[in-house]
Amino acid sequence: MQYMRSTMMQTPLLISRILQHGATVHGDSEVVTWAGADGRHTSYAEVGRQAARLAHALHDDLGVTGDERVGTLMWNNAEHLIAYLAVPSMGAVLHTLNLRLFPEQLIYIANHAEDRVVIVDSTLIPLLAGVLPHLTTIRHIVVVGDGDASKLSKDGVEVHRWDALLDGKPDTYDWPAVDEHDAAALCYTSGTTGNPKGVAYSHRSIYLHSMEVCMAESFGLGPKVRDLCIVPMFHAMAWGLPYAAMMSGASLIMPDRFLQAAPLAQMIATEKPTFAGAVPTIFTDLLAYLDANPTDTSSLKEVVIGGSACPPALMHAYSERHGIEVIHAWGMTEMSPLGSVAREPSGVDGAEAWAYRYTQGRLPAGVEGRIVGPTGEVMPNDGTAVGELQVRGPWITAQYIGEDGPDPDKFEDGWLRTGDVGTLSPNGYLTLTDRAKDVIKSGGEWISSVDLENALMAHPAVLEACVVGVPDDKWGERPLATIVLREGASADAGTLRDFLADKVARWQLPERWSFIEAVPKTSVGKFDKKRVRADYADGGLEVVQING
Amino acid sequence: MQYMRSTMMQTPLLISRILQHGATVHGDSEVVTWAGADGRHTSYAEVGRQAARLAHALHDDLGVTGDERVGTLMWNNAEHLIAYLAVPSMGAVLHTLNLRLFPEQLIYIANHAEDRVVIVDSTLIPLLAGVLPHLTTIRHIVVVGDGDASKLSKDGVEVHRWDALLDGKPDTYDWPAVDEHDAAALCYTSGTTGNPKGVAYSHRSIYLHSMEVCMAESFGLGPKVRDLCIVPMFHAMAWGLPYAAMMSGASLIMPDRFLQAAPLAQMIATEKPTFAGAVPTIFTDLLAYLDANPTDTSSLKEVVIGGSACPPALMHAYSERHGIEVIHAWGMTEMSPLGSVAREPSGVDGAEAWAYRYTQGRLPAGVEGRIVGPTGEVMPNDGTAVGELQVRGPWITAQYIGEDGPDPDKFEDGWLRTGDVGTLSPNGYLTLTDRAKDVIKSGGEWISSVDLENALMAHPAVLEACVVGVPDDKWGERPLATIVLREGASADAGTLRDFLADKVARWQLPERWSFIEAVPKTSVGKFDKKRVRADYADGGLEVVQING
Ligand SMILES: Nc1ncnc2c1ncn2[C@@H]1O[C@H](COP(=O)(O)OP(=O)(O)OP(=O)(O)O)[C@@H](O)[C@H]1O
Ligand SMILES: Nc1ncnc2c1ncn2[C@@H]1O[C@H](COP(=O)(O)OP(=O)(O)OP(=O)(O)O)[C@@H](O)[C@H]1O
Ligand SMILES: [Mg+2]
Ligand SMILES: [Mg+2]
């Protein structure tokens, strides 16, 4: 017998398969787009037909024939889902443009990716019009909705209307058999320093990641799930939820541009999601709203919070006051983005289970992790050794787009350097103490800004607490606690410092306190610590000093 | 910008990753091997160490260096799990030998696969000794357990003891980076006609299939699941449950050779599985036992029944009398084996939900199906058009081992011809009426033997009913109903025929009835219809004739 190869079909893992499966087997599942007062319902069967029409339009009318990039400047809505499916399935590359980036960054990424087409929600025409003069590769703009598009005129750029373009196109498409390693979609990280960096997901990585999202220990998506997809589709592929939903038949409830707590609460009461996902700040606002405005949230069993550390107090508040279980998760744009999900292991309950649920979560088989110390040594996964987390696996990027190879600052020996600092336990749970760049280095010791924040956010008067390191003559760096109080609540620095006293080591207690209106946020709703540090440096913060 | 490739890591999908993940992150999960009175517990961390030792022993002592085949002649137990993981991870190929095959078939498959090593449970030494003189490629036998091995002597064959071989070997192994498309494991179908035919699963197909098994809509394996793995590891990879368990941290309860209802009930009461899977006959026996012998089955929430059509009456009996939900599933050795799982869609309940649960199940994204009519035309998925089911996907075989290419009787244009006849509904549910070779052709019309069986098995006096087509002068073929009555129950042919009268069309009612002690079973516990037809032809059945 000759060398033994498998007899299995070498079926490539393609987004067109996810599309075809979702549009047929799960044709009755639906995407609901919130329209302000109620939801617009579209079945997955219809999504499939529209995706075919869009692909025909892009190919036949706009000349998209190869791996050209098709950008989207869109909220979470049915048309964005259709673009998510159609563009990669036809062999082109989807580029989700983060509409909250600074204009320079938006211009940079659209030019860097050489986007040839942009699909834009008509509510975002002003934004696109503002950057359009600087976009050098755009030839076509497709406007969804019927707002005034006259501001979008530019030589060499044709403006189309989505409805007109799709009208009369065939509702099937002969999706090509692309290579599973080909690029399917691009996403750029927000670029807290320097220019944003992009990654190119493959059909394979998206397919595998979608399966992961549907695994029971991960998000467990399936036909009975109704996912309120708050996390934006322009950021880290909305955590892969749109693709996983089409793969598994979960229905999607899309908030479009209605991301404030009041409309989110109304969506929950009306559209009855069973599941939702977003960053902590969204759920902090929503909690305050739900506490003040009784809302029927009985359908909602589980919400995933990730993107930043989820304060334990927030988890308890949802569980105890609203019967909603918060599942903490960690990921990165560079990881498609799912890294870990914090479900407690078998055989534990009570406080022990909560301790596991506070962590960033457990790594799945598809994500291999290791902790690396400051001098490059691999440290034990003993739950104690602190270092930088490195990861590798089939849905993790090996480099950034357009770079010659892996940048050694970001990659090492085939591993991605996450820039996140923490521990790995023997049973695979990740606990992050900080981002490497946010760790507070006080007299040779490290203080975890996340620990201080979590402790502070457990105080009933505190809505948000953001802790950053600021220069200190004696210790090098010391923590500055910036505090947003809840509406109507009051607490002074001394009270909060006393509250912390039995929760963190004495030498970690902040001396500098600042009460602010709101924590500045990044383009994806995370605490913008760079801004906070800059505000402090510029003297823009009123600081109370307490010494212990 | 040049042609856009993805930036993702091209991490191969390997069994060594499943092993390493299970042995570390899920090191506290366990495999329990039933030993007659109680269970022997081994942690996944220990499984990982033993797998490394086994790989060293095979490599260093037995000279397994490439893709040589390592056969297993074993029950479901911890050592079999260790072989499942170690052999493919080291780059060799696992071949699970079906210990219930006829000796000629066993000899045929071991020689056809060119097995070089066989690992054998000491309780199976007599079986191996019987065929050993005819096994032409075996050089090493590894005996697990301490039975007398003196019968295994043969020139050119060395006999080793598992414990001695593994003793002192390192408990880590530098698993090679094999190609994900390489063969990982072989399985031969039982070969109802002619010689058995083998398929070679790849690392990739097993990895993807394992993810599928963990998806919520499939079997939903995860760390809190305790799987009573009744379905034999020598048949269709035990439905992929061992690999999926290591991937997800589900614990495994292995019955070893104790497959009768009484010990299975004891395992349930003692080891508290939450989940189990087996063919209908096993669950039919177990039901009779549980009805007669009150047993604590409270841990068991869900059991999957597949491999043959599951009678609806069996599903209701478990649900109503024991609070255990039966999930019907369909698959084939050629499909790794998972094809479809019958969970009802969203938004239905009561009788409508049950109707979905009676079907063979819903196809997942990884299994594409179509119905093909007798003249080769593709028929609509309308739930009505009956034809042969064809499937394709990344864990489905493209041909049989050792054949030059796909046999046109079994494969067509990249699709596997399943030999199963039925319908596909628009929302992806498969309903099988029969195997092509079991369909009863009566005067130009088809009668489904499965429908008749299901209707008969709903009668309280009937334990098992097996219906086959037999020659008939007037109609070409007519159904023969062979009936096994429950202990102590009585019913005659007239009663049963009357019972059927309002359940199937009048012209389908069988005229020929035979009351038998037991339905003959195949090597994997399915009704052996070939045997039943042969028994009838030979005059070996006592037949009552009733005309309507
Ligand atoms: N559950 C979590 N707990 C703590 N930090 C988290 C969590 N989830 C995500 N993060 C942080 O978010 C990072 C990934 O975020 P993302 O890819 O969305 O962009 P970003 O890193 O915030 O932006 P940029 O890379 O442009 O600076 C992680 O590296 C980690 O620092
Ligand atoms: N839920 C089910 N309902 C009806 N039939 C089923 C079901 N599950 C499996 N089968 C039957 O079992 C077949 C696959 O079985 P398997 O691969 O275990 O070996 P086999 O086909 O029985 O044996 P051989 O191929 O050697 O004849 C399917 O093709 C189908 O006919
Ligand atoms: Mg980042
Ligand atoms: Mg078969």
Describe this structure in words.
- Two copies of one chain form a homodimer.
- Chain A is an alpha/beta fold and 548 residues long.
- Helices cover 28% and strands 26% of the residues of chain A.
- Chain A is built from 15 helices and 28 strands.
- In chain A, the strands form five sheets. Chain A has an eight-stranded mixed sheet, with helices on both faces. Chain A has a seven-stranded mixed sheet with strand order 7-6-5-3-4-8-9, sandwiched between helices.
- In chain A, helix 1 (15-24) crosses helix 2, helix 1 packs across helix 8 (241-248) and helix 10 packs parallel to helix 11.
- Chain A is globular.
- At the A-B interface, helix 1, strand 9 and helix 7 of A face helix 1, strand 9 and helix 7 of B.
- Bound molecules: adenosine-5'-triphosphate (ATP) (2 copies) and magnesium ion (2 copies).
- The site of one adenosine-5'-triphosphate has 25 residues of chain A, from strand 14, strand 21 and strand 22.
- Chains A, B: This is Long-chain fatty acid--CoA ligase.
- Chains A, B: Residues 20-400 form the AMP-dependent synthetase/ligase domain.
- Chains A, B: Keywords: Ligase.
